[in-house]
Amino acid sequence: MPQTSRSIRCLGPSRRDLLRAGFLGFLGLGLDDWLRLRAAAPATPASPAKRCILIWLAGGPSHLDTFDPKPEAPAEFRGEFAAIATAVAGLRISEVFPRLAAVMNRVTLIRSVTSPEADHDRASHHLLTGYRPSPALVYPAYGSVVAKVLEPTRTLLPPHVAIPDAPPFSSSGYLSPAYDPFVVQGDPNADGFRVRNLTPPDRLTLERLIRRRAMVSALDEFARDVPPTPLTTSRDQFSTQAYSLLTSSRAQEAFRIDAEGAEIRDRYGRNPLGQACLLARRLVEAGVGFVTVNDRGSGQLGWDTHQQNFPTIRNTLAPPLDQALATLLQDLDERGLLAETLVLMMGEFGRTPRLNAAAGRDHHGRANSVILAGAGIPEGFVLGATDARGDSPSDRPVTPADLAAAIYHRLGIDPEMSFLAPDGRPIRLVDGGQPPPELL
What we know:
Helices cover 33% and strands 15% of the residues. The protein is of the alpha/beta class. The protein folds into three domains: 1-41, no CATH class; 50-192 and 260-439, 3-Layer(aba) Sandwich (Alkaline Phosphatase, subunit A), CATH 3.40.720; 199-254. Strand 16 and strand 17 form a beta hairpin. Helix 5 (120-129) packs parallel to helix 13, helix 10 crosses helix 11 and helix 11 (272-286) packs parallel to helix 12. The radius of gyration is 23 Å and the shape is globular. Residues 6-44 and 202-206 have low confidence and may be disordered.
């Protein structure tokens, strides 16, 4: 059986443990009770992650057709894909992920993420911030919180980068816009790929750029008597960061995916998602704290498979993800980076168990699957489960707030931390969530 919330993998008790278990037998505790007690004892906490890569499956992937198949369910629920064995005994995932099946022993799979939100924007806000959306306030996303907390140690590189663009509500929210992601705005797989706002416009030489910088500084002197606002402060930070990026060869080099050899580029996959994941690895290796890879698929709907769910996943969506994520985990590990890099993969919600008339699945917030890896996350571990049809959690439900608390813990950020809203109110990072203890 896979390591789950109900069965904890163990290397085996020592002789002393067995003797102690025998003594406990006099108290009515058997060996199985002792092992459960031992598994529940506080463990030595892992060191916090130094960086994070989030792969966001825009549109909301079907949990039933990816990481939570139900092969025993009736045909109108189980769908067309077979469930295949993985590197974790007893764990089966969809047949469309043969490469990921081989590395599931490196990850934690949460099958019981649940939210009342099933609208794209509202669900994205909930999953990316840990807060349900509010009409009065937009909350900061994980990457923006990391950018703010890491600000004192910021390098020339932006602390928060989105490739190729940013999902909805992956912004700084009520914080300063200075913590919004730096958006690449380009396909890393395209010939002649250039990062917008990072390459000077044609005919703008370094000398002219320095003169422009001096002119802007002179104009800013005239505004010294104007009280600063968050917007003007952000503008100053944006200006300084843009200038540093344009004039730093080290910063420029981090974004140069063409510096990678053909073999590693082929290994990730010569497609937008594969090359985005490779660029994400380059960026965290160079010192970027948080990278969001926004997987929108090849069409307008991405993982929003209301129609033709099965051919779209099989032929278009799954192959790049299978190759890119499996390679990313292996590559990070081979470079000694996985132990300090938290890797997340999720979308805004799962999809309905019952197929619709267009052979698709609709929005479904009650059940969703999330993958975490690296940075001390348990390996070969399955947390939670859904019912026989994949409609709702049947074991260990995990809310977006619980997930947020776990993510912040692994990043070394206190979920109890508070930031000030524009009206001066302190607001906690997490809305009452409790991190699953297994993930700590």
